[in-house]
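Bug: token stream looks shifted between consecutive jobs. Job 1:
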Amino acid sequence: MAMYRKIYRGDFKCPPWFSAESRNLITKLLDPNPSTRITIQNIMESPWLRRAIPRSIQEDQAVEDLDNENNKSKKQPETLNAFHIISLSEGFDLSPLFEERREKREGLRFATTRSADTVISKLEDVAAKVGKFNVNKGESVVRLQGQKCGRKGKLAIAAEIFPVAPSFLVVEVKKDHGDTLEYNQFCSNELRPALKDIIWTSLG
């Protein structure tokens, strides 16, 4: 627990043989505050990293930066950071150390190497096949809203897409409203079979 609290505070020491540039970069990488933690762009521009990156990779990054600049008006989905990724596993969930109460997490979570558009299309296909959901979608969230009332009102399901890397996504599906039994039956009978061909690995 002492180690976890140090991680939460960002309390660490670099070995004495680390260079000043690498110490500076590591300190910024391990900042526990996501609002002040160094960005990917600033990491790529750091003197220590640029000295070690082959020129061809630097050129590829320059092209990617240009593409990003051209598309910056398009809203991007939230990207998972290291603390989010740790919390995806029940065995590595640090929240009980810092929260007095923690509700049991319900839902389906999976990883995929397919695009967000493919995931959204799959969810739309499932909704169309079942024929009892209206679909509302955004850049990174898809909501399936039930058309008929069940035992506890209309079933509502939300799927949120998190990019971990450009070609690797984590999708979290959870019940927003309605009956848990109805939700679990939908996941088992309809959702899981429909998503089987795009799931890379199960995360829980």
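Job 2, same session, no restart:
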Amino acid sequence: MPTPRIRTVLLALTLVAVPTASVAHAAAEPPAASSAAGTTVAAATGLDDPAKKDIAMQIVSSAENSSLDWKAQYGYIEDIGDGRGYTAGIIGFCSGTGDMLDLVELYTQRKPGNPLATYLPALRAVDGTDSHEGLDPGFTAAWKQAAKDSAFKTAQNDERDRVYFNPAVNRGKQDGLGTLGQFAYYDAIVMHGDGGDSTSFSNIRKRALAEAKSPAQGGNQTTYLHAFLDARVWAMKQEEAHEDTSRVDTAQRVFLNKGNLNLDPPLDWKVYGDSFHIG
């Protein structure tokens, strides 16, 4: 789940990112197309390839929801006691960190009068806190009702891409990382956000770069990724709610140790003691 973040920093990061398609659009795109001259136009490479993106969503869901069925999580909502208020949806949008507010504002802009629209004043008031004031007792039921609406599902997909997926993939490509490295960035920004605190994604990356050069700087990809995962583990241990580092130790590190830089199936990993497999 994301940590508190500075929304203006996120906006600045996403403004420089090259947008990729949302899940709904990406799934409809062919892997490659032929031009009139008979040459082949390259498909998306890396984590933004539709098949790899789905794998990424399954792996994150294994940690966030103990399930590979990420598409069943649009209606998920609970307070997990981590100081961020309600955590909900496919990526763990939080009432206390601003991303849930952004999501409901987008949904309401697209579909006024939706079940969550009346809670916008309360979401603005509790932003930055773990308070439920103005949200209880009806907010969780309203969220689950909204999750039946395809427009709300699309809004969740779009905000996931704008705030987390696109920035992570683009930063990973700029650093010369392959699919696994891009996923390591994505999982980090999902949990830690990209605010100004020492455990934010950007500062985890800076910590890694102090230990190893990125491939874009002429470094070895495997060496750099070990440094990044070490920095990620350090960041997780700074917070009690994230001190279990198995989503790195028995998942991402397993793929890296096997040399699976392209995140190719079959994939086997464990998170919080539970075993998962993608064939």
